[in-house]
Every structure is written in C-alpha cells, then in structure tokens.
User: What shape does this take?
Amino acid sequence: MNTVTDRPSPGCKLRRRLLVGTITATLTVPAVALMADLLWRTGPDAWKLGHLAVFSVLSALVAFGCTQALVGFLVRRGRGDRHRIDPADTHEPLPAGATAVVMPIYNEEAGRVFAGLRAIYESVQATGQLDAFHFYVLSDSTEPNRWVDEEAAWAALVRELGAAGRLFYRRRRLNTNKKAGNLADFCRRWGEAYRYMVVLDADSLMSGATIAQLVRLMERHPHAGIIQTAPRLVRGRTPFARWQQFASRLYGPVFQAGLHYWQLDESNYWGHNAILRLAPFIEHCALPELPGREPFGGRILSHDYVEAALLVRAGWGVWLASELDGSFEECPATLIDFAKRDRRWLQGNLQHSWLLAAEGLHPTSRLHLLMGILAYAASPLWLLFLLLSTLLIYRQHATGLTLIARDSLFGGLNLDYRAQAAALLASTFTLLFLPKVLALLDLALRRGAAAFGGWHRLLPGAALETVGSALLAPVLMLFHSKFILWTLLGRGVAWVTQNRGGDGAPDWREAILTHAGHTATGLVWGALALALDPVFFLWLLPVLAGPVLSIPLSILSAQPPPDGPLSPLLATPEELHPLPVAERLAELVATLEAGEPPREFAADYGLLQAVLDPYVNAVHVSLLREKALPSDEDRDRFTALRERLVVEGPAALSKRDKLALLSDAHSMILLHRDLWSRPGWQLGNWWRHALRQYNYIAPAPPTALHR
Assistant: This one.
C-alpha cells in the first residue's frame, strides 16, 4: 500500500479540485438549463425566477455529491490514490507514554462507557504497545447517579485491569463550553505531557491495532496535525439504526474515496475517532467566542470543523484515513433521537456563518464550513422548491387560462413541455441514485458481496434501504426546516444525552406528538395538490408519503427486535464478521443487566452508594478537589442539607442540593459516618429501607468492592 512521503503539491491539489469542479458543473448545467427552458416555455415571471434560483443551488449540491461518488468509484478502480495516508502493516515500536487516549462523556450510561473503554484497553494491550498510552475519562456529567456510577466503574476497571497510573478519571465541576471546553481543560492541565491525543466519543470503539497505526502515521508524517478515521456504524438493534449502518457501510467507501481525492491534507475533522498532534493543536486551536448571543453567537458548538480550519491555516495537514479499518461508533436508535442529534449539530453548523469570511482561512476550509451549513440549509431549500412548485401550479389553474408553450430557448429542442418536465425529473433522480448504483458496482468488481452475506441478501437490503431513505428523507426535511426556523427565532439548543441502545419499547406518545404536524402537513398538502392537478399530485406523492406515514414509520423503526437472529437483509460485514474488539464489547455489554439497582432506589442509587458503601465513599471523596475552608454561611447550609437528607431522604433535596453535597468532601465523610452510626429511629424511612436492603435482603450492590 502506498503512503505519502511529502505533502501533495499545490499543483496536484489544484488539478484535482478543478476536475471535481468541472464534473460538478457538467452535471449541474444541463439540469439547470433544462429547468430554465421549461420555465421560459411556460411563461417566465418573478416567481419562476425564484424557483429557478433555488433549483440551481439544489442541483449543484446533488451534482457535487454525485461527483464525489463517481470520482471515488474511479479512484478505487485504478491502483488507488497514491497520496492517501493509509499505512502498510508495520510493527515499529511506539514512543513510550507519548499518546493520551481521551474519552469525554456527559451523563452517559456508565456500564456501556467503561465496557467500551475496557475493550479498547485490552485490544491495545494485545498489540504489546500498552506502554505507549495513557487513558483518560473526562466527565462533564451533571446527574448525581451518573457521576457516582462513573467513579465506581472507573475504580473497578483500574483494579481489574491493573491499570493504576495508566487509566485516569476526571470530572469537571463546571461543564463550560461542553465537549470543546472539556478537551480544552485536558489540554491545559495535561496536554504538555503528551505528543498525541486520540479523541473518542462515549460510543466510540477502536481496535488496538488501529490506534497503534494512527500513532505510527503521526510519526511518519510530521506535517500531519490531525488524522481522521472514517468510523463505521455498529451495534444497531432497531430497524432505524440498522438501516443507517447498512447504508453507511455500503455507500460510504466510494464517497470517502472521492472526498479524500480532492481534500488531501486539507480535510475535515469530525470530533472523534481521530488522532491529534497536541503541540500545534494547543497552540492554534483555542476557539474564539462568536459575537452576540445564542443561537448564532456565544460558544462554538461544532468545534471540530473550526479546529481543522485553524490547523490548516497554521500550515498543518488534516488527513482523512479513509481506508483504515477498526474504527467504529454507534448511531441513534430512533428517528426522533436522530433528529434530536441533528438539532444540536444544525445550530453548531449555522454558527459557522460567522466564520466564512474569517481572516486567513484556507479556501478549502471555507468550503467545508459552507458545506456544513448547506447540509442542513438544503432542507428548507427543498421545502421552498416544493412550495414554489405548488404555487406555480396553483397560479396556473387560478387564472383559468390555457397554457400556451413558447418556443424553446434551444432551437433544436422540440419536446412537449410535459415530456421536458419528465426528462428533468429523470435527470434529477439519476443524480440522486447513481451513487447507489456505483457503490453496488464497486462491490461487485471487488467481489465484496460475500462480506454482506451474498447478493441474495445484499440486493433486497439495498432495495429496502432505498425505500426507507425515500420515505424518511422528507420527514428529515421537515425536521430540519423547523429547527432552522427555531434557530432564526433565537431558540437555542439544550445539550442532551444521546440514546443509542434502542433496547426499550418505542415511546408511542412521543412519536404521535412529534410527528402529528408532519402527518397533517402531508395530508393537507396532498389534498391541495390533488385538487389542483392529479398529475402534479402523482409527482409530489413520493415526497408526501413519508410525512403522512411518519407516525407508524417512527414507531415501527424504533421497535426492538424479538429474541432471535437479526434480520439478514440489512447485515453488514462488521455484524457478520466482527473484529475481536467488537466481540469483546458485546460480551461485556451482555453482562451489564445483572447490575441493575433495585427499582425503589434507582432514582438516587448513586447517592446511596456514595453515602453507604465504604469503598465507593472512599473513592468518591478521594477524587474530590480540596477546597478552601467554607464560610460560616456555607458551613451552616451544608449542615442543614445533611440533616435534611438523613431525616427526610433524597426526595427532599433538589438535584442542585444533591450535587452540592456530593461535591463537598467533608459532607460526604460525615454522611457516611452518620448513616452507619445513628440509631435507626433517627433515620428517614428511605434510609432504613436502604440499610436493610444493603445488609440483609439483597446482596451488596454492584460497586467497585462487590462484583
């Protein structure tokens, strides 16, 4: 496999980008010309000019995506891209202690987080290169239960792995600037001790061999500031999640090859499953605060795009290692969870509008920022295009006049205007579906269908995915359009924990309330289109079907599968032939349910453990920072809170009060002593029941001490 020894020349980059731009224009111009001619022949006016302008932007976006797939297909047909950064297998030793593997988390389920981290740690250990790495869990959790669960799980993992001095845990008291602030805090405190930083998400999974290869790549390419892997989606259980991971796995390789072809060392960063060179990252990637307030101003939410742009501006390379295996992540389990995640990403990307004209940014970085904005702005543009199409049909029928077609702008074009409209529709669908055809053809030429279970599974799966995409795309269009409207009206976004498991029953009430507007929109719009023109209704039907069926689609796609083998139609190679690190994670996750707390204590189980269990209490107190002596007012407040907790139980305290007690080492020591030393009649009913449960009725809780 080829690897680069020098950075691609400016001439090489220019030639590649001119080629991509030329193909995009070649695909865009005929469609736009056909639409312009159609509007001309039916009588141009201001509304039709607006319709043409929106169509031109959308055509360029669709053509650009098709071009990337086409170029990627051609690159994969030849000898490969000689400038790709993917390395050959090697056993070069790694620099000892030079790399920090960091996992920022926020109110995640601790069992899954530390199961994944354990699988990664053991996989790195199996490479024989463990001495090259330190591991950090960087918590921003604000839920008391999550906080204590994380500490107990960390302490247990350190003991079981013998990882003292190698696996660390830190929780910030204030989660300023969310994930970007979490990583910035790590860089300030410990960044100078390391040469590289591998950034993971809470759901990330990477093999030890892949992590080691990333470090070797950094060693080989001293100009590289970031090397981003292309994570594959895994562990999807719901139909929605499995549809996502099947589509990503089937169509992703050709798109990623095309993406790398024109980006080269001015690629983008997706915020996780990547390795960063710490010195330039610390020096150049301090994020500015945008002018104004949220949602457009304030702290930057989508920090990764900006950090990549700042490194490229400083002369460092940002690479996409598109063919590096062993990098995985999970995806949202339901359509609604997917939309919630997009809500956060959308606002972050729209913030980048401030940065498009920022001084010194490379043109490629500006294009990345613009494409990130258009990834979501395309939805209201599609909605506007469809609304304008409906309006034009309405205006035509409202006049009651017979349509008299003009001569074509192009003298030799003698199509009937309805035939011309059909040709335009066919060309649009060709651009939309050609990448899927190219991906299947690429797989056939590589004889890769067996990895998906064979063509008898792959082709029906691709057909099912295509139908699902066609139904869900208009629903996402309505979601994104609504989110952009909210953003423009100044409604910011809350940072929520992502649901990826999908093992619970779907929430019918949430689905009905969320999609009721989509269903009503589809029904009303469809009735209007049918009344205006039955042919136009048939043209619009593929767009309206998804919103009309959105409630049952959302519920059925979130339905967890019954016991037994998963449906083979959407199987991926990672599902059929998992790597050892993925198999190990599955083993660990399968054992988690045995540790569920008793239902009556679940709401405050973390506080219960931190107060009652001696080991958890000691771990928790040892991880708290030393504070200055409290004032008399604070001392009195903590005394009152402790007494209220002991006498009335956790339900009497607010979440803020519980966090305050959990953050005060002196209070936690006193609470542990009081709960074990006071006579029972001085304790609240909740604590008396908890003590009986702890001592007699049930085994000791699954803490770091008892497993």
User: Anything to note?
Assistant: Residues 99-337 form a domain with the Spore Coat Polysaccharide Biosynthesis Protein SpsA; Chain A fold (CATH 3.90.550.10). Residues 363-399 form the longest helix (37 residues).
